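Lecture 7 notes: from sequence to structure.

We start with a single chain of 231 residues. Read the sequence below before looking at the structure.
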Amino acid sequence: MPPQSFATVLLTRPSEGSTRFAAMLEGPVILSPLLEPRILPADLPPASSLIFTSPTAVRAAGSPPATHAWCVGDRTAAVARQAGYAARSAAGDAEALFRAILASKEVGPLLHLRGRESKGDLARRLTEAGIPTAEAVVYEMVPRPLTEEARQALRGTSPIVVPLFSPASARRFMAEAPDAAAPLRFACLSDAVAHVLPNDAMAATAARPDAQAMCDLVTLLQRLETLPTEN
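Now the structure, written as tokens:
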């Protein structure tokens, strides 16, 4: 039986996340972060609990005004616990986090530490639901170009699997590689990510919005029978 062929995976998320995800994969991987975080100074108001919707926000918190935290998912909660927070995970997305906070009977005030671009509008929605919530922008994502290694792969003819973890990263990739010659297979974390791609793109959405489900989808796309084999 011939050896299993794997398509190359092009990882464009920030360096830390790409390195961690690459360790879960088989086959060739190219790391080419298109966005990297930059920490921003911020004056943080008092709060009974913090809200984190990314691990980067945890790292950017500095000396926070609270030791309890609500976290969007298990990875963010794990990073928060490592930083010393009593963290609770909503194990989902921003909507799941909103529902979990409402169900907890929190009284606030809460503080959402977030990036310059954020989804879910949590502070406004929680405040309107009766839980006073402020927000502070503690980091922003700085664009970076594709590496020469990535550009060479995209100019080739072999299939490339591109995992996309957010609508912003999908838009960045399409802007950086509008004329890719290589057949592209997109693994999307959610339907919101897939909707950013062209209608004719070969795209699939993970069964769940988590790293393991994305890994499973990427592996499937790497192993499709249409992969070319060496003679």
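Residues 211-222 form the longest helix (12 residues). Keep this in mind for problem set 3.
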